Amino acid sequence: MNYRHSFHAGNFADVFKHVLLRELICAMQRKPKPFLFLDTHAGRGRYDLSRAAEGGRSPEWPDGIGRLLAASGLPAPVADYVEAVREYNRACGAGADTLRYYPGSPVLALQLARPADRCAFCELQPEEADALERECAGHRKARVHRIDGYGAPRAMLPPLEKRALVLIDPPFEAADEMRQVAAAVEEGLRRSPAAVFAIWYPLTGRAATAPLFLPLRERRLAPTLVIELRVQAEAAGAGMGGCGLAILNPPWQFDTALRPVLAQLAPLLALDGEADVRFEWLVPEAP
Fold it and tell me: What CATH class does 6-283 carry?
């Protein structure tokens, strides 16, 4: 699952991830103190949807962000996300009625960042890092780091701001990727016990979540909320039928706020009528 390819941009998984990411950032900003947003596998920042069909593969965005553009009655977090995508297109010079450019996580974070907030984007692939640096040009509080994202928690935590939101969204190409994620989270929480970690992961026939969930559950590193969206019946082989976000140290009542939002969003993204959303506390909050 190589998310450096533009045909994935704006698909249902991006919609799910980016709606939740924006809400996490907004929750962090309810306190006046600044924070560090650390994206360990940032990508290029801008994805040209006009190139999504290159290579003979069908683009995925029409069944993701494409379904939301004309939808009415969207819950506020989803409507705000859609407007952020439209605003980015306008800023990139696309026509008012044209969706051409999709913003990755770094761009969405920069849209929301306050003057005192700081953004650190890690990207090891040279072409992706070059593109991301161009995207971040002029943003004084953003910096691109050409390092292995799994080393970022060790290198950048604890932050000077004493508050951090860490997004871990790797390509899940390596066989031991889930274990690497778990190790990076454990190291990060050892350095910044109060940091919020958001881990995106796919739901596929080959991407077993046990190597991630078992260490988180057994070591009880921090309160851990798991939110999963499935848009079709369990996919065979390598196909992705859904995705999830594991959030350690989630903001207060984050699950309560997002349940009705995702309940409305899931049917809009369903591929075969089997869409559903699951919330689970892998490690419960302290009473």
Answer: alpha beta
> Quick check: pTM over 0.85?
yes
Dist. CA 42–CA 38, nearest whole Å: 9
Question: What confidence tens digit (pLDDT) does each residue in 187-245 have?
Answer: 999 999 999 999 999 998 766 888 999 999 999 999 999 999 999 876 545 578 899 99
List strand residue ranges (DSSP E) for 70-115, in order: 101-103
d(C-alpha 102, C-alpha 65), whole Å: 9
Strand arrangement of the beta sheet that strand 224-230 belongs to: 142-145, 118-122, 36-39, 164-168, 196-204, 240-248, 224-230, 276-283
User: How do the domains of the chain map onto residue ranges?
Assistant: 6-283
Contact 225, 279 (CB under 8 A): yes
Q: At 50, phi and psi to the nearest 5?
A: -70, -15
Question: The dihedral of CA 217, 220, 221, 224: what is its sign?
Answer: positive
Residue 165, both tokens: 């939101």
Is residue 39 among the annotated active site residues? no
Q: Which of 39, 117, 169, 255 is catalytic?
A: 169
- Mean pLDDT taken over the chain: 92
One-letter amino acid at 231 equals: V
Is the peptide bond between 158 and the residue preceding it cis, with omega within 30 degrees of 0? yes
User: What's the start-to-end Cα distance of the chain, in Å?
Assistant: 39
